[in-house]
């Protein structure tokens, strides 16, 4: 095949998983300060299928659209002015977010300083599972909540992609970690560092814990998790609400209780990815992959992701 084209998953209209097609499209070329990366693996995230369905970051997209943001691969070319990377470097990133990045493809281009060197201890499939989920957890704990040793941190949806990393980061920072998840995930979450686990299908979390310094809320208004989290948070503590930001109900409840709130939308952050890679290589953090897929299996991957029953992450193997 021509070096001017590449395989990619594309969509021409918003809709269900069936709108995704794998075809050959023009290969991107790096502009000055950008790098061209040959993608070895691409991570799959909830925002991907939400955007495909016309939600999520749909308002920032245009057709034809190549979905996805998480990538791990090898630098193929560098544009004029790039000083931090060279051809052959193994890198990972969540480039351009929330603008289109085109990660479900054999090549991507983006500013060189949005990429970090991938964890040396991980294959590309493991590295591709990290960026969006790990940066979300990192920004929530470090930048929004300022979690410190000795604090109590509650992580909702702790068995998911963001959640299982948030548990490990919080534990690494010296916090006491409470995790909500279905009971079959409890033993695994305790291996990752959770001190307490709560099966939200058996009892309400507000009946099982309290005195929390920070809540990492990955469910938002679902079952009023955001508002209910206020009751377990100490005055002066914080609820970081990731999906959809701070709802009016959360703002009202938190204001009455003297609890702080913060919305969160993850951003490209090469410095944080470098710190995360160091933790991974030191053995302090691990990423869980539920299953890998070929690009041609994009519809199947999204259908599985939309069940919200996966343990950890889903990943495309783009090149072997």
TrEMBL record:
Family annotation (CDD domains): MDR_like_2
Transmembrane annotation, as ranges: none
Molecular function as annotated in GO: oxidoreductase activity
EC number from the UniProt entry: 1.-.-.-
Keywords: Oxidoreductase
Domain of life: Bacteria
Pfam family, one: ADH_N
Keyword Ribosomal protein carried by entry: no
Residues of the Enoyl reductase (ER) domain: 15-316
PANTHER family: ALCOHOL DEHYDROGENASE RELATED, RETICULON-4-INTERACTING PROTEIN 1, MITOCHONDRIAL
Protein name according to UniProt: NADP-dependent oxidoreductase
């Amino acid at each position: 095949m021509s070096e001017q084209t590449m395989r990619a998953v594309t969509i021409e209209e918003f809709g269900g998983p069936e709108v995704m097609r794998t075809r050959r499209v023009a290969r991107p070329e790096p502009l000055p300060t950008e790098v061209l990366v040959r993608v070895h693996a691409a991570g799959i995230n909830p925002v991907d299928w939400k955007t495909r369905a016309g939600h999520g970051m749909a308002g920032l997209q245009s057709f034809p659209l190549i979905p996805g943001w998480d990538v791990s691969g090898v630098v193929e070319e560098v544009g004029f002015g790039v000083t931090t990377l060279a051809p052959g470097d193994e890198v990972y990133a969540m480039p351009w977010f929330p603008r289109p990045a085109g990660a479900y493809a054999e090549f991507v281009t983006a500013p060189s300083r949005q990429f970090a060197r991938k964890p040396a201890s991980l294959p590309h499939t493991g590295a591709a599972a990290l960026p969006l989920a790990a940066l979300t957890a990192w920004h929530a704990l470090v930048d929004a909540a300022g979690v410190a040793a000795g604090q109590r941190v509650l992580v909702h949806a702790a068995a998911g992609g963001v959640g299982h990393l948030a548990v490990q980061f919080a534990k690494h920072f010296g916090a006491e970690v409470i995790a909500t998840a279905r009971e079959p995930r409890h033993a695994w979450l305790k291996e990752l560092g959770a001190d307490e686990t709560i099966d939200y299908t058996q009892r309400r979390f507000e009946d099982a814990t309290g005195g929390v310094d920070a809540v990492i809320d990955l469910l938002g208004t679902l079952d009023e998790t955001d508002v209910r989290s206020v009751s377990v948070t100490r005055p002066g503590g914080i609820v970081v609400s990731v999906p959809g930001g701070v709802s009016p109900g959360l703002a009202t409840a938190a204001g009455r209780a003297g609890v702080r709130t913060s919305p969160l939308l993850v951003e490209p952050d090469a410095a944080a990815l470098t710190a995360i890679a160091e933790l991974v290589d030191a053995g302090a953090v691990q990423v869980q992959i539920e299953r890998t897929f070929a690009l041609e299996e994009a519809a199947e991957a999204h259908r599985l992701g939309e069940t919200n029953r996966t343990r950890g992450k889903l990943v495309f193997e783009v090149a072997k």
